[in-house]
Amino acid sequence: MSEIEREAMEYDVVIVGAGPAGLSAAIRLKQLDADLNVVVLEKGSEVGAHILSGAVLDPCGLDALIPDWKEKGAPLNVPVREDNFYMLGEGGEVRIPNWPMPPLMNNHGNYIVSMGNVCRWMAEQAEELGVEVFPGMACSELVYGDSGEVKGVVAGVFGLEPDGSYGPNTEPGMELHGKYVFLSEGVRGSLAKEVIAKYDLQNGKEPQKFGLGMKEIWEVDPAKHNEGEVTHTMGWPLGGNAGGGSFIYHLENNQVYVGFVVHLNYKNPHLYPYMEFQRFKHHPKVAELLKGGKRVAYGARAISEGGYQSMPKMVAPGVALLGCSVGMVNVPRIKGNHNAMLSGKAAAEAAHAALQAGRQSDELTAYEDEVRGGAIGKDLKKVRNVKPLWSKFGLTASLALGGFDMWTNTLGFSLFGTLRHGKTDAAATEPATKHREIAYPKPDGTLSFDRLTNVSFSMTNHEESQPCHLKLKDPTIPVAVNLPEYAGPSARYCPAGVYEFVEKDGKPEFVINFQNCVHCKTCDIKDPPQNINWTTPQGGDGPNYPNM
């Protein structure tokens, strides 16, 4: 803990992250007891600025939290009207019929939404109940109590010197103490990572697995727009190089979400996820939809894909992990927002009961019991084998095996038991000599775009004089290990062009353009020697997503 003198503010519950999990927890706490002091701290410049999701929303989480959400004007305006699955080849596609799919794959009753806008609306509901919501407040460190419990966070540090030291213009921030602290930072949050390591919460669980999701918003020709249409594809262009697929969602105002997910357990370090996404848009089916349209926004975010068997222990003294800090995405459904909301509600109920009983700063075991034994656990348990089957047997075999396993799980049993994931995504990366380089076509500037042009459509911005928030544990490793052994994969796996190898005085040099960072966390996950540590930059920095 730092020796800096700071003012401290006391709360009943301190919540880090104004995503669906954190805001649900805040709302539920105030529904249960209007007198509780609850604060939500958000590192984005506004609520929703860092929210990026597909998203087709299953409203069950919102139904449980705010049953009259329709009357209250929640921005769920586009019900799913059409559900398509395709297997793509380079020049064509085969439609996969809906009838053999297990019922959980049905999108009837779900909504195409901007989760950024849903979170903006949820923040309004929270504030009406008396929750304090502070955007632009990055939480840079945890505060521990005398018994080793988490007692609060440090938020609002601004103006550090480039070397990370405190200078004459540094604002030291504040300590916000809570009887309980909820970490709802999303995937691979920096504070959650610290808590998981400190209390060994991953012990006995499978390693967490991840995907990289990239997304563009397009305005398309009204004649091609079909509001309420949901399309998912698999196959080309990834083929056997990586797991993953695409989503195309038609929302209102002639807008379409075009997204692409690459599972980060790919072996070939030459793979370039961003360019796979750009190549995908040249498939005849996709190109025809986008022709004559224009891209209006771009962003990227890691997705937790480990599911049921990868969820760490969720509680430690004084602290609980919510939503994607735990990893609650149902991979075949490509949905996690409903579970994030349910986890926030469950954490709030456990904390409220504890506070009523005069407890504080202990482990909220009732929260973990509810997550594992309740609706979230049931949702994730049914699909727990889909991801490991895909990793083990590839796309075609896993479609049949995964579908079969989901059907049997719907009936209450599995012939596979619970399969293991094995390696971390970083450890899955193999030396470059084992693989061929992949030739990617040059972006045409109409359908496909170079990375830096696209990053400008994420409206990302970082104060340049601050310390680089992407910390290297050993600054020699990129050039000494990653370049000769893995062909410098950070120059490709980052969807924002943060990392590059340049030549200086005849020698390679590793450059970090942290201003480009869209906070996706891929580098923290995929770097083979695990040498990059993603930490939070100062509050308000990063992307400014409109309606992602």
Automatic annotation (TrEMBL):
It catalyses: a ubiquinone + reduced [electron-transfer flavoprotein] = a ubiquinol + oxidized [electron-transfer flavoprotein] + H(+). Transmembrane segments: none annotated. Its EC number is 1.5.5.1. It is an enzyme of class 1 (oxidoreductase). It comes from Lutimaribacter pacificus. Keywords: 4Fe-4S, Electron transport, FAD, Flavoprotein, Iron, Iron-sulfur, Metal-binding, Oxidoreductase, Transport, Ubiquinone. The lineage of its organism: Bacteria, Pseudomonadati, Pseudomonadota, Alphaproteobacteria, Rhodobacterales. This is Electron transfer flavoprotein-ubiquinone oxidoreductase. Coiled coil: none annotated. Binds 1 [4Fe-4S] cluster. GO terms for molecular function: 4 iron, 4 sulfur cluster binding; electron-transferring-flavoprotein dehydrogenase activity; metal ion binding. Pfam families: ETFQO_UQ-bd (PF21162), Fer4_ETF_QO (PF05187), NAD_binding_8 (PF13450). It comes from the Bacteria. Its cofactor is [4Fe-4S] cluster; FAD. The keyword rRNA-binding does not apply. Residues 445-545 form the ETF-QO/FixX C-terminal domain.
